Amino acid sequence: MDVMERIDQQVKNHPVVLFMKGTPQFPMCGFSSRAAEALKRCGEDFAYVNVLADPEVFENLPRYADWPTFPQLYIDGELVGGCDITLEMYQNGELEKAVKAAIARRSGAA
């Protein structure tokens, strides 16, 4: 399986996935840290991919959805955006609604 297929599987197999530098527990950049913290505050589990631990993903993810920077947040298989968009959505309440709705849809379909 090539790297684009692996990225696609991560995006489609998880209702919420954050491609970030480091992990939610040990973020390796400020933007990834803030995005992960906003997601944690939504009160739901989310998947993550440490792009620093997978150089192929680090190199190819920007081509996947034509988004050049990290972190990248996907909800329901769609790119939401990076740190700024994630924080803006968190502050206006949209992030928690989107995360909870995606997880509810996925668990209802299971």
Automatic annotation (TrEMBL):
Matching InterPro entries: Glutaredoxin, GRX_PICOT-like, Monothiol_GRX, Monothiol_GRX-rel, Thioredoxin-like_sf
Keywords: 2Fe-2S, Iron, Iron-sulfur, Metal-binding, Redox-active center
Gene Ontology MF term list: 2 iron, 2 sulfur cluster binding; disulfide oxidoreductase activity; metal ion binding
Family the entry assigns: Belongs to the glutaredoxin family. Monothiol subfamily.
CDD domains: GRX_PICOT_like
Binding site for [2Fe-2S] cluster: C29
Domain of life, per lineage: Bacteria
Classification via PANTHER family: GLUTAREDOXIN FAMILY MEMBER, MONOTHIOL GLUTAREDOXIN-S14, CHLOROPLASTIC
Glutaredoxin domain location: 16-80
First and last residue of the signal peptide: none
UniProt keyword annotation of Iron-sulfur present: yes
Protein name stated in the entry: Glutaredoxin
Pfam families per the UniProt record, alphabetical: Glutaredoxin
